Amino acid sequence: MSHYRASSPAGDDHRHEARSADDDHLHEECGVVAVYGHPDAAAHAILGLHALQHRGQEAAGIVSFDGRHFNTYRALGLVGDTFSDPRVVDGLPGHAAIGHNRYSTSGGSTVLRNVQPFFADFAFGGLALAHNGNLTNAVGLRRRLVEAGCLFQSTSDTEVMVHLIARSTERSILERLVDALHQVEGAYSLVALHDDGIIGARDPLGVRPLVLGRLGDTLILASETCALDIIGADLVRDVEPGEVVLIDKDGLRSVFPFKRLERRFCIFEYVYFSRPDSTLDGKGVYDVRKRIGEELARESPAPADVVVPVPDSGVPAAIGYAQAAGLPFELGIIRNHYVGRTFIEPTDSIRHLGVRLKHNANRTTLAGKSVVLVDDSIVRGTTSTKIVDMVKAAGATQVHMRIASPPTTHSCFYGVDTPERSKLLAAQHSLAEMARLIGVDSLAFLSMDGLYRAVGEAKRDNARPQYCDACFSGDYPTRLADLDGGQSRQLTLLQYER
Fold this sequence. Notes:
Layout: E1 3-7, E2 14-17, E3 27-28, E4 30-36, H1 41-51, E5 59-65, E6 69-76, H2 79-82, H3 86-90, E7 96-102, E8 108-111, E9 118-122, E10 125-135, H4 138-147, H5 157-167, H6 173-181, E11 186-194, E12 197-202, E13 211-215, E14 218-222, H7 226-229, E15 234-238, E16 244-248, E17 251-255, E18 265-266, H8 268-273, E19 279-280, E20 283-284, H9 285-299, E21 306-309, H10 315-325, E22 333-335, E23 359-361, H11 363-366, E24 370-375, H12 382-393, E25 398-403, E26 416-417, H13 425-428, H14 431-438, E27 442-445, H15 448-454, E28 467-468, H16 470-473, H17 481-484
């Protein structure tokens, strides 16, 4: 029987946070990485988490296995802060490790017991689990498990899977995991570590990404290819929707235990979530974003002198827009990269200055110019309003805002931090009303067909959508069991303690 050794920063079991006043983008929930067959597996997993930092900035964790013991370290904060002490890395020995970056669903308390990977000792041995996505029937499953006597230590839907594995009557770890996954609904890409190896799995729709890489004899699983690049690994392929891969001393095995479905990969991964240097499903994210800008320029030209991105997410689309429109591309807004994601303003009197913590207008580029301002999306509209005010205050004569995605009109229930629909600007207002509220001379969004053309499809097939685009269309690819039962908010963290 293997043993489990855990460590965490003393006294760091909670942190009260507040969202920045200008934090008005959609956010991914987390990123995962798994490394097998390397004497410094944990160190390589930590590097992978560094590359995946954009997918979760609130907490990070690693579990390694050294042949006898499972070793773990989990903490709140950024990867660089969490794993900067060499003693932490030295405490994670072994040839196999999995890691997780976490971004919670809303503001409030973040507690250490919600930080992944989770570990449990079963009769068959130890098992650590980390998960990217969201289970849309987690509330109902959790209620049923509690009634059956299960004790929960966290409020994460990942722990629901742990209990389902524990209660399974199947014999092998693989069979128990598959049995558990047959009971869940929603989106997931997960990695698991057990005594004999690692397991990776992707939901049958393939909503969330997961890739397979190789570094010599070492095999790696990660949410994005940028995690492979940072450790010098080569991309082997994407893990297929509905595929479960087993990696151990005998190499790699692959099984497809679920009914094959039409894939519905999250199209917003191309718009915003993934790093621009990643490759997803054979497509370079940066190239797709440039094509998005080109489509936007063709669909919605503007009488302008210059194209300016809202950094950093609007940059590739703005480059594509400028090239297609024959306009100069300029950095009219400069971002301060040394401001953390969260900032608690000391007094209400300066709260309205929050946007200037991260962005400042480049006056010499904007003064006297008619500007096309390119951003990836509009959520609540609070950021857009402040950015537009800043650009106008810098002397722009006109501001024409162009959005590199269709209007965000519906909440996501597949692992993305999304406000309730009542707080989404595009769900409550017409295009003209939004333009007036934001304060622009004109406003245009990329069409749904334009987005599909940018990712390589002729157009959106309304009968059989090729991607999950529910945040734009309301066309959810799975049953929203918990929502139907009255649970109206994001479900990855079922509740927060105050």
